[in-house]
Design brief:
single chain; YaeB-like fold; six-stranded mixed beta sheet; 2 helices; 31% helix
Length: 113
């Protein structure tokens, strides 16, 4: 399946990885590995995760207090947010209410060089 991130979601992903990397060497890469694990799971079984509304789902990371907020469309998974599970619930809702969202294709790997 093809994967796309909303620019804000991609920014959240990078900021969280940088935060963890600053806390402990290689922890940022472990965070990204956990996200990659979930991306692989979603590619195989896109209907996994808690249903938030008619089209959006949330799947939590195991080791980190974040969840991926996404929706599936045919052969495409669109990520709306990389949301901290204990802060600002549903802050991402305005992102999906705009009719002309600009999506960007994610790199083949989310891991930074």
């Amino acid at each position: 399946m093809k994967v796309e991130f909303l620019p804000d979601a991609e920014q959240e992903l990078l900021e969280a990885a940088e935060y963890y990397e600053a806390r402990k060497p290689d922890l940022g890469n472990e965070f990204l590995s956990e996200v990659e694990r979930l991306l692989a799971t979603l590619s195989d079984v896109p209907v996994v995760g808690e249903k938030l509304d008619r089209i959006h789902r949330r799947i939590p990371l195991r080791r980190f207090p974040y969840a991926l907020i996404f929706r599936c469309e045919a052969d495409l998974i669109r990520f709306i947010a990389i949301a901290h599970r204990r802060r600002r619930p549903r802050y991402w809702k305005p992102r999906v209410q705009e009719p002309s969202l600009q999506w960007e294709v994610a790199p083949s790997s989310v891991r930074a060089a």
